[in-house]
Request: fold
Amino acid sequence: MRTLLFATLLACCGALSAQVVVLNGASSRVGQPVTGGSWATAYGTFPNVTQTTASVSPIPKTLGGVTVSVNGVAAPVYFVSPTQVNFLVPFAVTAGVRNVEVKTSSATLTGTVRVMSAAPGIFVNLPSTSAVPPGGAVLNQDFSINSQSATARRGQVIQIYATGPGALSRAIEDGTAAPSSPLALTTSTPDVFIGGVPAIVQFSGMAPGFSGLWQINAFVPDRAFITGRVPLQVFMDGVDSNEVSIFVQ
Reply:
């Protein structure tokens, strides 16, 4: 299945000469950029790699014999498998189309990725259908996972989990967990749209104790037509995220 996905991605991206395709790690949307500190995923065929997940913090820069560099800067590597590598884009990488190099014990594979100053991607919790976008990784005000059986309420706060906010109020070393005191806040306030209506943002910063995880707290607009499964999208400094959906009562 992943081999077919890789072949499809190469065709869609027009990158037939690339050995890996690198996508935003939250959305996996073709063409969506990444930014320093955000999650990214490299798809390819990685020989002699055993599926491994990092179990230590800070996230290591070598995992299962695999290393990743972006524009020559070593990246923290969280997950490796024969067809997929998940990593954090180093904060030092600047905007532009940048080279990505994935090294295994027996091969070096290359590709490119578009880096921007902000590159919001919302994590997905529920799969998509032909009619609606996938369910977003969102918690309701009572901290339950948003779903059809656990809906958000209009006028209450939801927590949206994403990656790629861009500039922060304080520096974080590559691969380390975000601090709780002081918090690492975003220097810009994202625009959040729920059911097409602007939502008031209460908080925007890196989730304490996690690496590369952006948390946005926003009020669900109190509009009667916002009910059922509705679209959710985030814009940061004019850059759009993937569209997901949430359930609202």
About this structure: Helices lie at 2-13. The longest strand covers residues 228-236. Residues 1-16 have pLDDT under 50 and may be disordered.
